Automatic annotation (TrEMBL):
<dbReference type="InterPro" id="IPR000835">
    <property type="entry name" value="HTH_MarR-typ"/>
</dbReference>
<dbReference type="InterPro" id="IPR036388">
    <property type="entry name" value="WH-like_DNA-bd_sf"/>
</dbReference>
<feature type="domain" description="HTH marR-type">
    <location>
        <begin position="1"/>
        <end position="135"/>
    </location>
</feature>
<dbReference type="InterPro" id="IPR039422">
    <property type="entry name" value="MarR/SlyA-like"/>
</dbReference>
<dbReference type="InterPro" id="IPR036390">
    <property type="entry name" value="WH_DNA-bd_sf"/>
</dbReference>
<protein>
    <submittedName>
        <fullName>MarR family transcriptional regulator</fullName>
    </submittedName>
</protein>
<dbReference type="GO" id="GO:0003700">
    <property type="term" value="F:DNA-binding transcription factor activity"/>
</dbReference>
<dbReference type="GO" id="GO:0006950">
    <property type="term" value="P:response to stress"/>
</dbReference>
<dbReference type="Pfam" id="PF12802">
    <property type="entry name" value="MarR_2"/>
</dbReference>
């Protein structure tokens, strides 16, 4: 049997969408829309909106809207970048860190619930495969 890369990609996308869908209510209770959560979760790794847009494959204009929402909700604040006073970097607030961590915990719980359907050996193999796939091709 030939494994089709596009089919595997679609299955992976459907799994991630199902997990996000199962957690949508919990995200809403935290005051987060799904894409706002993705932006909030990326802020520490990519503190500039343009970097977030690149990392998440989102239009810069959309990221600007999500950042405004997160600032208004008190989850993120803008700070002047000491290295370049013309730029602002984003910093999660204590409330933002708490909301992000609670959302991540909800997602982890749902993902773990689905992982429980496969053996511990298969989970270890899945982790190995995913890590190998993340290594850039030579």
């Amino acid at each position: 049997m030939t494994v089709d890369g596009a089919q595997l990609w679609r299955l992976n996308q459907r799994l991630l969408s199902a997990v996000m869908g199962a957690c949508a209510q919990e995200l809403a209770e935290l005051g987060l829309e799904t894409k706002e959560f993705f932006v909030l979760a990326e802020v520490e790794a990519s503190p500039y909106p343009a970097e977030i847009a690149t990392a998440l494959l989102l239009p810069k204009a959309s990221v600007t809207v999500y950042v405004r929402n997160l600032v208004a909700k008190g989850f993120v604040r803008r700070e002047i970048d000491d290295a370049d006073l013309r730029r602002h970097r984003l910093v999660p607030t204590a409330e933002g860190v708490e909301a992000r961590d609670r959302a991540l915990a909800a997602l982890a719980t749902e993902y773990d619930r689905r992982l429980a359907r496969i053996t511990a050996r298969d989970r270890t193999e899945l982790q190995r495969i995913l890590q190998e796939m993340l290594v850039p091709p030579a």
